[in-house]
């Protein structure tokens, strides 16, 4: 018969990470994020903005080329003219690149925010000596994550390569006639083929990036998995060692008990069961709106309350139903509820008469 040693499985990372473990990883910059998704959306957005503004780009490019090949050729090469030419070139470059840079910034920021949220940390860029360990470097090279990234890169290259090849082959007839076309027609054909290749490539990369996004979340959760022993250790750190916590509670109960016993001599009366319950009541008409329970207990504690009351001249009154009701319904420090006013008032009146206060 095979005997299983359950302790050998205690160190296996089989449990999902706790919220505290996830929070600590987030502080260190370890968050599930897919750079592939960000790159694919940036590429797709850039292609769309170029397509939407293709007329603007073509008109400005042709106008700039026409001006450069006509008016600029007759200019004398002076310092002032050279500066103006460079300024015009810079202005055209800014007009061409500014929309693309803006869309890249907006998409990059929104994609990162939706994946990570508002989070800033410099922990990942802090130099660490263990990162310079050559043995650890070799392990990282052959780690599962590295192999997965290599496989993803190979798959992307093969799929995009096939897509480019298929697009060019399907347009081979148009490309063979380029030599008989004028410049606008050539630009139109080449631009159309290029846009089709870029559009299809961006959509393909976006589909792959979506799969990568879910893989990154799975891999992040897997890398932070915990063993049962890890969860126990974390519980001890956050909630405290159960043994120590029990001792602290025991001391707190003992201190509360001592404080309660110190209040018994201040009571006006102790209502008893007579053996199982004891409830000490105090009432000062000048300071209190209603009588207050200052101590209560059962069994041994009830006997201790009665003993202290006798030692300090506090009157004991036996009333079984009232003692049980007060013990079960009124906590220490609380006033007597209205429905018990009459019964408690009769007891206090009896005590006052007994002490010849009335």
From TrEMBL:
<dbReference type="GO" id="GO:0005886">
    <property type="term" value="C:plasma membrane"/>
</dbReference>
<feature type="transmembrane region" description="Helical">
    <location>
        <begin position="37"/>
        <end position="58"/>
    </location>
</feature>
<keyword id="KW-0472">Membrane</keyword>
<feature type="transmembrane region" description="Helical">
    <location>
        <begin position="96"/>
        <end position="122"/>
    </location>
</feature>
<keyword id="KW-0969">Cilium</keyword>
<keyword id="KW-0966">Cell projection</keyword>
<dbReference type="InterPro" id="IPR006135">
    <property type="entry name" value="T3SS_substrate_exporter"/>
</dbReference>
<keyword id="KW-1006">Bacterial flagellum protein export</keyword>
<dbReference type="Pfam" id="PF01312">
    <property type="entry name" value="Bac_export_2"/>
</dbReference>
<keyword id="KW-0813">Transport</keyword>
<dbReference type="GO" id="GO:0009306">
    <property type="term" value="P:protein secretion"/>
</dbReference>
<feature type="region of interest" description="Disordered">
    <location>
        <begin position="12"/>
        <end position="31"/>
    </location>
</feature>
<keyword id="KW-1005">Bacterial flagellum biogenesis</keyword>
<keyword id="KW-0653">Protein transport</keyword>
<feature type="compositionally biased region" description="Basic and acidic residues">
    <location>
        <begin position="12"/>
        <end position="27"/>
    </location>
</feature>
<keyword id="KW-1003">Cell membrane</keyword>
<protein>
    <recommendedName>
        <fullName>Flagellar biosynthetic protein FlhB</fullName>
    </recommendedName>
</protein>
<keyword id="KW-0812">Transmembrane</keyword>
<keyword id="KW-0282">Flagellum</keyword>
<feature type="transmembrane region" description="Helical">
    <location>
        <begin position="142"/>
        <end position="165"/>
    </location>
</feature>
<comment type="function">
    <text>Required for formation of the rod structure in the basal body of the flagellar apparatus. Together with FliI and FliH, may constitute the export apparatus of flagellin.</text>
</comment>
<feature type="transmembrane region" description="Helical">
    <location>
        <begin position="185"/>
        <end position="215"/>
    </location>
</feature>
<keyword id="KW-1133">Transmembrane helix</keyword>
<dbReference type="InterPro" id="IPR006136">
    <property type="entry name" value="FlhB"/>
</dbReference>
<dbReference type="GO" id="GO:0044780">
    <property type="term" value="P:bacterial-type flagellum assembly"/>
</dbReference>
<dbReference type="InterPro" id="IPR029025">
    <property type="entry name" value="T3SS_substrate_exporter_C"/>
</dbReference>
<comment type="similarity">
    <text>Belongs to the type III secretion exporter family.</text>
</comment>
């Amino acid at each position: 018969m095979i005997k299983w040693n359950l302790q050998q499985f205690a160190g296996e990372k089989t449990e999902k990470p706790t919220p505290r473990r996830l929070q600590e990883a987030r502080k260190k910059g370890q968050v599930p994020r897919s750079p592939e998704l960000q790159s694919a959306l940036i590429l797709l957005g850039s292609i769309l903005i170029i397509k939407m503004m293709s007329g603007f780009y073509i008109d400005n490019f042709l106008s700039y080329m026409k001006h450069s090949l006509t008016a600029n050729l007759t200019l004398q090469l002076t310092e002032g003219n050279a500066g103006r030419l460079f300024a015009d070139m810079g202005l055209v470059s800014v007009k061409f690149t500014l929309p693309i840079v803006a869309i890249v910034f907006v998409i990059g920021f929104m994609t990162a925010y939706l994946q990570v949220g508002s989070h800033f940390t410099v922990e990942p860029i802090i130099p660490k000596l263990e990162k310079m360990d050559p043995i650890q470097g070799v392990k990282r090279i052959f780690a599962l994550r590295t192999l997965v990234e290599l496989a993803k890169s190979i798959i992307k290259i093969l799929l995009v390569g096939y897509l480019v090849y298929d697009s060019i082959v399907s347009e081979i007839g148009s490309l063979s006639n380029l030599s008989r076309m004028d410049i606008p027609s050539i630009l139109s054909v080449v631009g159309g083929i290029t846009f089709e290749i870029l559009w299809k490539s961006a959509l393909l990369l976006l589909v792959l990036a979506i799969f990568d996004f879910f893989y990154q979340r799975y891999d992040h959760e897997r890398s932070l998995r915990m063993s049962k022993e890890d969860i126990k250790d974390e519980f001890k750190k956050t909630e405290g060692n159960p043994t120590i916590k029990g001792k602290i509670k025991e001391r707190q109960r003992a201190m509360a008990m001592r404080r309660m016993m110190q209040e018994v001599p201040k009571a006006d009366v102790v209502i008893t069961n007579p053996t199982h319950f004891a409830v000490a009541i105090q009432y000062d008409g000048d300071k209190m709106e209603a009588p207050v329970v200052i101590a209560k207990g059962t069994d041994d504690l009830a006997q201790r309350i009665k003993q202290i009351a006798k030692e300090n001249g506090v009157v004991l009154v036996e009333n079984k139903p009232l003692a049980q009701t007060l013990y079960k319904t009124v906590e220490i420090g609380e006033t007597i509820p209205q429905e018990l006013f009459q019964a408690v008032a009769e007891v206090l009146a009896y005590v006052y008469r007994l002490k010849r206060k009335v």
